[in-house]
Amino acid sequence: MPKMKTRRAAAKRYSVTGTGKVRFKKQGLRHILTKKTTKRKRNLRASGILCDIEAKRAKAMLPYA
């Protein structure tokens, strides 16, 4: 049986932690940073965790994660 294919777009955006949670990089830290507060930019640097429903959808696109 052939290997299952991974959705490459999902593989570039999400990673799965050791406990099975799905981690992602927060949006909004690429450009137009002058009008954003330091606190907001600092909070955007941290990675986010997907909620359970969205994580289930993301894991369906990542068969080997």
* Element order: H for helix, E for strand: HEEHEH
The low-confidence runs, each spanning 5 or more residues with pLDDT under 50, are none
CATH topology: Factor Xa Inhibitor
| Fraction of residues in β-strands | 5-15%
Q: State the distance separating the first and last CA atoms.
A: 19 Å
CATH architecture, by name, is Irregular
Class from helix and strand fractions: alpha+beta
Shape: elongated
How would you sum up the major sheet? 3 strands, antiparallel
Mean pLDDT: 97
Total helices: the number is: 3
Q: Which CATH C-level class is it?
A: Few Secondary Structures
Radius of gyration, in Å, reads: 15 Å
Count of β-strands = 3
Largest sheet strand order: 1-2-3
Q: How much helical structure, as a percent, in the residues?
A: 25-40%
Q: What does this 3D model show about the protein?
A:
Helix content is 37%, strand content 12%. It has three helices and three strands, in the order H-E-E-H-E-H. The protein has a single domain (8-61), classed as Factor Xa Inhibitor. A hairpin with a 5-residue loop joins strand 1 and strand 2. The radius of gyration is 15 Å and the shape is elongated. The chain has helices spanning 8-13, 38-45, 52-61, and strands at residues 14-16, 22-24, 48-49. With 65 residues, the chain is an alpha+beta fold. A three-stranded antiparallel sheet has the order 1-2-3.
